[in-house]
Task: inverse folding
């Protein structure tokens, strides 16, 4: 079933190109490991196992890591009411609604398809946002589900995950067991580590580029669905400002899931790091929302610049 969220052909093309390039990288990666390790059965079983686990259990992993729990309507009636209204407006299945008991104001969507999706918000977000702002954030997260980019990011991430695991395994094996290996084994480990590091670096850049674009696409879709881009802009400004005041040490646990968040769990705006960031800059997002607001003829909000 197709939702009423505004389609984004450029996002679809970028997702297809990213998956194609990562697919090629995946074939090369597996082939190189088979040649180096001389055991295709072991390589295929491990890689397939990690991919399957990440695809089927990514939502549970994310929920567990972020201490999210499913909440019923009786416990959070206003939150459910907003999700119900947006799903009816977008003509899409209602996802599972969850809440994470964290002060960091944020939200994320996860799940392999619209029928198996979860939208989670933190208690810090619920406490800080006005109803219209919360609606904008939830519309943003629901658009990720409707565009199916959550599943694409989940699948795309697995190659980098397994490559990173192999790099760490090879590194610690060399550190703690290097003295007991012959020269051929050492060369093999170095080769595996080199291939895995290269694959991790390339997949990292491809996924980050797609992630930045999908955030802009979600902002656009949410703004058009609700008709109130200024409310989403207000939520972005408020959440980004509050996250910047949270100590870095308190954000570190959450940073592993930045690609799924409404705003990244970082305490600063990216400079040169923007090329490695999961999200576009706040200024870029606000500028886009300002343009949409002008196109829709939305009255300027008090205190809103631009």
Result:
């Amino acid at each position: 079933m197709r939702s009423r969220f505004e389609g984004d052909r450029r996002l679809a093309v970028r997702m297809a190109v990213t998956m194609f390039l990562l697919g090629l990288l995946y074939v090369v990666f597996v082939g190189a490991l088979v040649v180096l390790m001389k055991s295709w059965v072991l390589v295929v079983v491990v890689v397939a196992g990690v991919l399957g686990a990440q695809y089927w259990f990514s939502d549970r992993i994310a929920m567990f890591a972020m201490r999210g729990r499913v909440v019923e309507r009786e416990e959070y009636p206003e939150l459910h009411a907003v999700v119900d209204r947006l799903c009816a407006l977008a003509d899409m299945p209602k996802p599972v609604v969850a809440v994470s008991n964290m002060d960091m104001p944020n939200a994320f969507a996860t799940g392999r398809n619209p029928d198996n999706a979860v939208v989670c918000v933190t208690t810090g977000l619920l406490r800080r946002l006005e109803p219209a702002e919360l609606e904008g954030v939830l519309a943003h997260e629901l658009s990720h589900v409707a565009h199916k980019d959550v599943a694409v990011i989940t699948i795309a991430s697995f190659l980098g995950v397994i490559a990173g695991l192999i790099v760490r395994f090879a590194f610690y094996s060399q550190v703690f067991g290097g003295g007991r290996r012959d020269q051929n084994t050492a060369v093999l480990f170095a080769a595996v580590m080199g291939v895995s590091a290269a694959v991790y670096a390339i997949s990292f850049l491809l996924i980050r580029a797609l992630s930045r674009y999908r955030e802009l696409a979600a902002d656009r879709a949410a703004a058009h669905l609700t008709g109130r881009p200024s409310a989403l802009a207000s939520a972005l400004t408020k959440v980004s400002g509050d996250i910047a005041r949270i100590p870095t040490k308190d954000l570190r646990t959450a940073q592993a899931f930045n690609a799924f968040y409404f705003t990244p769990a970082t305490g600063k705006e990216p400079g040169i790091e923007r090329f490695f960031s999961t999200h576009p800059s706040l200024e870029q997002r606000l500028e886009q929302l300002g343009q949409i607001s002008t196109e829709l003829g939305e009255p300027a909000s008090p205190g809103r610049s631009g």
Notes: DSSP finds ten helices and four strands in the chain. The longest strand covers residues 117-122. The beta strands are 68-70, 96-100, 107-111, 117-122.
